[in-house]
Amino acid sequence: MFALAIIFGALSGANAQNYPSRPVTLIVPWPAGGTTDIGLRSLAIAAEKHLGQPIVIENRPGAAGALGPMQMAGNASADGYTLAQIAITVFRYPFMRKTTFDPAADLTYVIGLAGYTFGVVVKKDAPWKTFQELLSDAKANPGKINYGTPGAGTSLHITMEQIAKQQGIKWTHVPFKGTSETTNALLGGHIHAIADATGWGPLVNAGELRLLVIWGAQRSKNWPSVPTLKETGVDLISNSPYGIAGPKGMDPKVVKILHDAFKKALDEPSYKASMEKLDQEPFYLNSADYHAFAMRQMIEQKRVVEDFGLKQD
């Protein structure tokens, strides 16, 4: 048995020494063309030259961003060649549905990356010029206002319900799979508003959509005239930080190689320009700190699911 342990240890060391010898797959658990997809494709390109191998993006949308990481955790080898973006939904999902997936035990946390800029947009000809006007209408007409998000149980859905609870209003959630679907629904007049990350940015800049409020701690650099939730009288901040993880049991040496390549990519001008365009704030955490962040999120998201009755099974 001792001899076997030595052999396996030597093989592991050899694998880490040769890593990476082929392309690495990065699972993006959202549709192509959305805010997360655009940002992570930019990160992958910036990290490739530091890693020495291509990083291939694979879109696996579903379960509000949790499907891709769950499939990776259940099926992928821990050799460092399959990774996934980890949205906050991943920490929430086990408390919403029956699943064998455990983010505390089934993932190896590599690096924390960034936080989103979230906001609420309406059509350019919508009757609400401010977020306060939208809140007032929702209060006067319970259930009348419906809004779209990239999915039930996402931070966007939960924050909108937190706003409703805090303001004593009721509005109707309509879940979609991603930014393109919510945008089409809004432009087609099927919903009144969208709560999403900055995928709405180009249409806001083109004057087709009106941005009513930003959910960050400060006003957006790209839309400085738009108030934050706190400035509108809603005591909330929501930016849903995310990072990258692999399956459980990854070699620490491989984790370090990946961490260092992505960390260097964060400083690449091309990636920084992409983040500025998407209006995403840096949220860098090293592997140990990102693991600790994940463990705290498990506790926090369990409470969120209980507070809003989000358990579906």
Summarize this structure briefly.
α2 crosses α9, α2 runs antiparallel to α10 and α4 packs across α11 (287-307).
Characterize the structure shown.
The protein is α/β, with parallel strands linked by helices and 313 residues long. It has helices at residues 2-18, 35-51, 67-75, 89-96, 131-140, 155-167, 179-187, 201-205, 252-266, 269-278, 287-307; strands at 24-28, 55-59, 82-86, 107-115, 119-123, 146-149, 172-175, 193-196, 209-214, 242-247, 281-285. The chain folds into 2 domains: 2-116 and 240-307, D-Maltodextrin-Binding Protein, domain 2 (3-Layer(aba) Sandwich); 119-232, D-Maltodextrin-Binding Protein, domain 2 (3-Layer(aba) Sandwich), CATH 3.40.190. Helices cover 43% and strands 19% of the residues. It has a 6-stranded mixed sheet. Helix 2 crosses helix 9 (252-266), helix 2 (35-51) packs antiparallel against helix 10 and helix 4 (89-96) packs across helix 11. The longest helix is centred in the C-terminal third of the chain and has 21 residues, at 287-307. The protein starts with a helix and ends in a 6-residue tail after the last helix.
